[in-house]
Amino acid sequence: MIFKDEKVFNLYIIAKGIDEPMINHSQRVAVDFLGNYAIEGNEEAVTALQMLNRYPGLHPLIREMVASKI
Asked: Is there a contact between 34 and 48 (Cβ–Cβ < 8 Å)?
């Protein structure tokens, strides 16, 4: 899926963190921003969080953070 909102797309890619086996500060911040955008009514941010929650390679701690934002 391609996001129209470039901010949401970039945050989604950062939160996904496919290049590193461990979570980092940028991933945590990206999830927080996506959560804030979702609360503000950004539907693409909600979709990004849902997609992250279903992504099989997501780090378990990031998945917990994502689930708490949904």
From this structure: yes
Task: Answer whether 0.85 is exceeded by the pTM.
Answer: yes
**DSSP single-letter state for residue 20:** -
- Between CA 41 and CA 14 the distance in angstroms is 21
Task: Name the residue among 50, 57, 17, 11 with its Cα closest to residue 32.
Answer: 11
pLDDT tens figures, 31-70: 999 999 999 999 999 999 999 999 988 888 999 999 999 8
Helices (H), 1-70: 6-16, 25-39, 43-54, 60-69
Looking at this protein, which amino acid is placed at residue 47? T
> Look-up: residue for tokens 């934002």?
69
